[in-house]
């Protein structure tokens, strides 16, 4: 877990460095999916590590690589589900900044090929193949050779050297050695020209490697650059200054042929046009099998206070502060809004990338595999909606927002799994098209299965969406916690009977119900109007409704200042008739926001929000008690301190 997570971070930092002519990494993002932490050894499958051990190893790997690189790790999420026991997911992301004039690469015939960074060894050979195959109890032994060995200090030197060389215009193109090592780096970047590679010139960690091993090794901390031969001496000077190796290992051709040489003998030759375009596309059969099971709720809730406490303690809702505190959030001095605010969680993270400008970047994410078990289509649409809500809550402009995807599914050779992928793609297309937000990057990881004998465990269909948005003026951002007693609490958006995949149903062990829907046209109008209200300084606090619905969002907004809230449940805007109060409190319907607005600003706020379904559902009070009233009866009346302790200790107590 430690090594795998560390290489995940190192790899995505190099992806960032290999974008354009080199982007400076300014933020790391970490999203994890683990098995349930309360699984005991009897429940574990043979060859599977306990989820708690995996979690601690993964967090340590991300921490040690990011912290030593001097990059803040300040945005992320953690999700727990029993089917991630054997196939945990570690999503690592990096955000970078780059001058506009350095965005485009040029692939020019006769440029030399330069390998920069660490030496090449056998570590990581077939690592990408291992990561894409199904796991078995024997996989743990094989993994030691497939998992690369990371060195963040070496990578930090590489980043500094390359950015300096970029600013001196010393190279024309750059990419990283990721999956497939030199074979993919050169094979992809030299597609239009061709290349001649001298494999015996590649610096090795030790002798004895065959030319095949050199070509496909996935040893870490290596970059490939194309540059004019006359610029290499200055480039080498810069690399020597930072104590980084730089070696000429080949030259670009003009005939689209890839020729590999070892000790002056040709050991490989292929036409790159054939390599990239010669194989027919794979055709798969897809069957859409998942159906929502709608069941009338007929149980009685004896104690709403206890129910809310249990939901706040749930590991998918509870505070992730123990994990967050492992990371350096402040390094580089760009973090404007951190993921946790003296108790209350932030919806996303804000960076101020340029000191001389008061503009910001909002980053948020959305993930919910429980929705995917019921409806991959609406899961995909929902996580896009969630990621967009998160950046809007941070002050982001929905019309200056981009997203990226990470698809993690099981074996696409099986019709049902392929059907899940197709449904998720269609749902993502529907939501992104409707919101008008472009996909600017993405990745997939398939074959997430574990086999023991004839038994297979597959992960739930999982799609992570990350969103990045421009904040034109950092002065117009707000935080998520309540600020002033007597200010009004306004719920924006409609609530439906949408409890499929909800935290409420998960604690009742009910895998049924209707997954939340998304209406992008309506949602975009809401987000645009919220942005306009923020620009006029009309909102004191803003928080989206997500896992746990209204009950959780209200509690979280009370934590930081230890204020209370008095809520009239009848005032919640409904999209359909709902008789049961538990549905209203814990529904996870999309595109809903809680706003705190001062009474003196109320008229202006309501004027801006005209045409949007919203209502005043209560007010902030000084007494630190959350009260939710329905039909003149207090269903919930509980001290904020009790709720806060449940939320703070729910996950931490299971980790420690």
Cα separation of the termini: 18 Å
Strand ordering within the main sheet: 6-8-4-9-7-10-11
Largest sheet: 7 strands, mixed
Please give the CATH architecture of the largest domain: 2-Layer Sandwich
Q: What is the total tally of β strands?
A: 28
CATH homologous group name of the largest domain: PurM-like, N-terminal domain
Helix proportion: 25-40%
Structural class, by secondary structure, is alpha+beta
- What is the 3D form? globular
Radius of gyration: 26 Å
What is the count of structural domains? 2
| Average residue pLDDT | 95
> In DSSP terms, counting alpha (H) and pi (I) runs of 4 or more, how many helices?
20
GO biological process, one term: 'de novo' IMP biosynthetic process
Domain PurM-like C-terminal: 111-262, 487-627
Domain PurM-like N-terminal: 1-98, 357-446
EC number: 6.3.5.3
């Amino acid at each position: 877990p430690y090594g795998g997570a560390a290489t995940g971070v190192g790899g995505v930092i190099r992806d960032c460095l290999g974008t354009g002519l080199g982007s400076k990494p300014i933020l790391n993002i970490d999203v994890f999916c683990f098995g349930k932490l309360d699984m005991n050894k009897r429940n574990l499958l043979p060859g599977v590590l306990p989820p708690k051990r995996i979690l601690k190893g993964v967090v340590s790997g991300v921490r040690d690589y990011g912290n030593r690189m001097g990059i803040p790790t300040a945005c992320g999420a953690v999700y727990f589900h029993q089917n991630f026991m054997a196939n945990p997911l570690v999503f690592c992301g990096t955000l970078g900044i780059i001058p506009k004039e350095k965005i485009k690469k040029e692939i020019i015939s006769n440029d030399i090929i330069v390998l920069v960074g660490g030496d090449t060894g056998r570590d990581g050979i077939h690592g990408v193949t291992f990561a894409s195959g199904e796991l078995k109890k024997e996989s743990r032994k094989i993994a030691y050779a497939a998992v690369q060995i990371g060195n963040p200090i070496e990578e930090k030197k590489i980043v500094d050297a390359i950015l300096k060389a970029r600013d001196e215009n010393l190279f024309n193109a750059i990419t990283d050695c990721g999956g497939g090592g030199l074979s993919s780096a050169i094979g992809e970047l030299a597609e239009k020209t061709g290349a001649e590679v001298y494999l015996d010139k590649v610096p090795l960690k030790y002798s004895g490697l065959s030319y095949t091993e050199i070509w496909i090794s996935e040893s870490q901390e290596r970059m490939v650059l194309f540059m004019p031969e006359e610029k290499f001496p200055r480039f080498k000077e810069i690399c020597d200054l930072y104590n980084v190796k730089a070696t000429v290992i080949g030259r670009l051709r003009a005939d689209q042929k890839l020729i590999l040489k070892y000790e002056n003998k040709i050991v490989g030759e292929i036409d790159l046009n054939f390599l990239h375009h010669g194989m027919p596309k794979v055709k798969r059969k897809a069957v859409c099998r998942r159906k929502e099971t709608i069941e009338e709720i007929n149980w009685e809730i004896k104690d709403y206070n206890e129910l809310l406490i249990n939901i706040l303690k749930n590991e998918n809702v509870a505070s992730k502060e123990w994990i967050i505190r492992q990371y350096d959030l402040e390094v580089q001095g760009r973090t404007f809004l951190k993921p946790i605010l003296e108790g209350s969680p932030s919806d996303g993270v804000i960076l101020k990338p340029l000191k001389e400008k008061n503009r910001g970047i909002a980053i948020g994410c959305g993930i919910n595999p429980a929705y995917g078990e019921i409806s991959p289509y609406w899961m995909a649409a929902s996580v896009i909606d969630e990621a967009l809500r998160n950046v809007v809550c941070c002050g982001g402009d929905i019309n200056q927002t981009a997203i990226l995807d990470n698809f993690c599914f099981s074996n696409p050779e099986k019709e049902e799994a392929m059907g899940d992928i197709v449904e998720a793609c269609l749902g993502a297309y529907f939501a992104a098209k409707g919101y008008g937000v472009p996909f600017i990057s993405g990745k997939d990881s398939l074959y997430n299965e574990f086999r023991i004998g004839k038994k297979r465990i597959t992960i739930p269909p999982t799609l992570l969406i990350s969103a990045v948005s421009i904040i034109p003026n950092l002065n117009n951002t707000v935080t998520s916690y309540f600020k002033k007693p007597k200010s009004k609490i306004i719920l924006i958006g409609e609530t439906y009977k949408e409890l499929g995949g909800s935290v409420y149903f998960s604690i009742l062990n009910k895998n049924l119900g209707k997954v939340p829907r998304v209406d992008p046209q309506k949602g975009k109008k809401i987000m645009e109007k919220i942005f306009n209200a923020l620009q006029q300084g009309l909102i004191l606090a803003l928080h989206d409704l997500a896992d746990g619905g209204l009950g959780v969002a209200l509690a979280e907004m009370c934590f930081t200042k230890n204020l209370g809230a008095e809520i009239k449940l009848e005032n919640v805007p409904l999209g359909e008739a709902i008789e049961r109060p538990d549905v209203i409190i814990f529904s996870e319907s999309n595109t809903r926001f809680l706003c705190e607005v001062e009474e003196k600003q109320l008229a202006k706020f309501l004027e801006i929000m005209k045409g949007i379904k919203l209502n005043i559902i209560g007010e902030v009070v000084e007494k630190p008690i959350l009260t939710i009233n329905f039909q003149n009866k207090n269903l919930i009346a509980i001290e904020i301190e009790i709720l806060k302790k449940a939320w703070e200790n729910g996950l931490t107590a299971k980790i420690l």
